Amino acid sequence: MSDKRQHIIKISAALMHSKGYENTKLSDILQAAEIGKGNFYHYFESKQELGLAVLDYIFSYWKYALLENILSADKDPEVKFNEMLAWVVNQQKRNQSKCGCVFGNLAVEMSEHDETFRRKVESVFDQWTDKLARVFAEMIGPAAGNDQQIFKFAQSIVAMLEGGILLMKSKQDIAVLENVIELARTSVRHFIQQYKQ
What we know:
The protein is mainly alpha-helical and about 200 residues long. It has nine helices and no strands. It has a domain at about 70-195. Helix 4 (about 45-70) runs parallel beside helix 7 (about 115-140), helix 5 packs antiparallel against helix 7 (about 115-140) and helix 6 (about 100-110) packs across helix 7 (about 115-140).
């Protein structure tokens, strides 16, 4: 990938995370990237193509940082779960509780209107859920097996965190997300205890 194309994607990622996809106009991108319209269309056929490239760009970082470096690490599963929660909070603190989750934002904004965006965002949440389900299975131990109940519970925790991020963004108060994090910890403890019984 050319440096210029990567630069446009990186600039656009910051804009779309803050303003949303629809509210980020081509003129905003051209101004922030300091390029002309002809230069833009040299690298991208459309704003949609750029938006999908932005999703891939953000996911490549997110996949490494969360799915591989934390949830797939060779560590105690409870440590991995707690590191995931800390990572989620730190991501939001870094953005001063204002921007929310870029994938959650795009799911709300685009899923009804663009099937390609919807499928990409769905894949992000599916991969997160799958990795988290494996962590919960490790917590449970040999009794876990290949149980759909564990996957459904992992999905509910992802939904809980995304909902917490959305409420935090609405209030611009990290304490909202931190409260949801504590509830997630309690929910996981109860689920693991009940499953083992």
